[in-house]
Amino acid sequence: MFGIIQNFTIINNMEMQMNISGLDNVLKTLQSLPPEVVSKRGGVVRQSLAAGIRVIQKEARKNLVRATSTSGKTNISYGTGLTAKNVVYKRKNMPNGIRGERLVMTVAYKSHPLFTTQYRNKPIKFNDIAFMLEYGTVNQQAEPWLRPAFLAKKQEAYDKVQADLLKRIDKVTNKLLRQPI
Hints:
There is one protein chain. The protein is of the alpha+beta class. It has one domain (4-178). The protein contains 6 helices and 6 strands; from the N terminus they run ββααααββββαα. It has helices at 24-32, 35-39, 43-69, 82-85, 126-135, 146-178, and strands at residues 4-11, 15-21, 87-91, 103-107, 118-119, 122-123. Strand 5 (118-119) and strand 6 form a beta hairpin.
């Protein structure tokens, strides 16, 4: 069809970025639609990106459950699945000067209810656990869960975004064509 992954980068602190180009026909169609349809809270683009990121989110959650369920030095597993349930995505503003939609996958910044101990004089949060697993600590070897999920599912996510975007654009244009002028 159309569209290629132009470049893929892994930025520090578990942020991954995929730039998509080659969607000129889709962009022209989006620009021809009324602004309230396209830009309202991201419109069809945000919805399609969300469909694609859910593919990676599902794999990341499976990887995180696998990483937290392995027993450590004490041969005791504390894996309850709570941290994996807190793998979320949220909408973020684009960097200055760039137009478009941006969704970022992260782990919720909420206190873990089962750990009453502190880490660096702060209550342990879900994202602390996820970060320590992804990159390791002085006392624990890294058990990456997000990077492998992204690398394994990036093409499937891209295909999902592309197919979903085309479907949503067709739906919106057909709806607009049926409306009387």
